[in-house]
Structure formats: C-alpha cells, structure tokens
Design a protein that fits this description.
- There is one protein chain.
- The chain is an alpha/beta fold.
- The protein has a single domain, classed as P-loop containing nucleotide triphosphate hydrolases (Rossmann fold, 3-Layer(aba) Sandwich).
- It is about 55% helix and about 10% strand.
- Strands 2-3-1-4-5 form a five-stranded parallel beta sheet, sandwiched between helices.
- Helix 2 crosses helix 5.
- It is globular.
- The C terminus is likely disordered.
Length: about 200
C-alpha cells in the first residue's frame, strides 16, 4: 500500500485537497482532526497537567487558551509536541493497518507539519498544497479570531512554502480555483495507479 503524505502551510487549502483525495476513493487520516479528538479525550488531563488552566468547562482542551501559552514559546511547544505527537502516531498506525487490511492500494496521511516533524520518513510520496502568498494571507486573516500577529507567529513555526515545494514529489496549486486543483489531484492518483499497478479505488 502506498502511503501518501499530504501537507501544506496554513491557509494553502490542504483540507479541501484532502477531501478531493477522498473523492478519488482514497482513505484519508487527518492528523489535526485526531488532535481535536485527543484534546476532547485522553490527552486533555495530560495537557492540563503541563499547562494548567487550558481546559474548558467540559473538560476538553481550549485550543485558543493553549495556543496563547505555546505560540512564540519554542520550549513550551516542544513539551506539548512530545506529549501529543506519540498519541497521534498511534492513531495513524491504527488507520494504516485498517486501510491495508481493507485492501486499500493507497492511503493519505494529512499531516500539517509533515516536514517540520520529520514525517516524510513515514510516507512513500509527499504532496504539498500551495497558493500564492497573497491568497494565503487573505484566506487566513478572514478566519474568525485571527490576527496579523498570530498569523505571523504560526508562519514562523512552519517551513517556507518554497522549501516544502522543493522537497515534494507532487505540488497541488489551489490559487486558481477548485476545478484546477481537482484536475491536479486526479493526475496524481493516475500516476500512483501506474506506480502501484493497481486501481486506486475504494
């Protein structure tokens, strides 16, 4: 089974692109969604122990409170990652085992910080989702609660887009509309079909 890593900086259209791979019949594991689930479950008390006061009234991690504690603090971010990343890897491993047992010829790992965390070593190919910097900025600043300072702090933690593209096996450009991006995704799946020698369908 081909393991395809999907990544891209904030605001590049990665989630939309992941949905396109799903539409092509590939199972997709969303690392960020896995973190959301962990923050509502077994990770919550352990995150609270590291950063007291970050839970909401339901006992789940409030991501805005947590972000305020770790953004701009590399040491705090490393402590959080050391806790959460192994849990996400466990979820990922279970997903891959299930996909392979189901006979899927390929599976997509949607990992926001794939290169930054060495995730490329866990996949066979990497797709980077990209858009012009002006489009990225417009998309991100339109998000509720986003500020220029927060956007720039997030960017500072991420590998520059040009470097991600240089390291990628495939690049999906999302700045020219959904139809254009969908054609690129379909072309990637066709190429992987040729590499894998099997139809990439569910």
């Amino acid at each position: 089974m081909i393991r395809l890593g999907l990544t891209g900086s904030i605001g590049m259209g990665k989630s939309t692109t992941a949905a396109m791979f799903r539409d092509e019949g590939l199972p997709v594991h969303d690392a960020d969604a896995a973190v959301h689930q962990l923050y509502r479950g077994r990770a919550a008390p352990r995150v609270e122990a590291l950063f007291p006061g970050v839970l909401d009234g339901d006992g789940a991690v409030d991501r805005a409170r947590l972000g305020a504690r770790v953004l701009g603090d590399p040491a705090a971010l490393k402590r959080l990652e050391a806790l959460v990343h192994p849990m996400v890897r466990e979820e990922e491993a279970a997903f891959l085992a299930e996909a392979e047992a189901a006979g899927a010829p390929a599976a997509v790992l949607d990992i926001p910080l794939l290169f930054e965390t060495g995730g490329e070593s866990r996949v066979d190919r990497v797709v980077v989702v990209s858009a012009p910097a002006s489009v990225q900025r417009e998309r991100v600043l339109a998000r509720p609660g986003m500020t220029v300072d927060r956007f720039e702090a997030i960017l500072a933690q991420q590998m520059p887009d040009a470097e991600k593209q240089r390291r990628a096996d495939f690049v999906v450009e999302t700045g020219e509309g959904l139809a254009h991006a969908r054609r690129q995704v379909a072309a990637i799946v066709r190429q992987l079909r040729g590499e894998g020698g099997a139809a990439l369908s569910s």
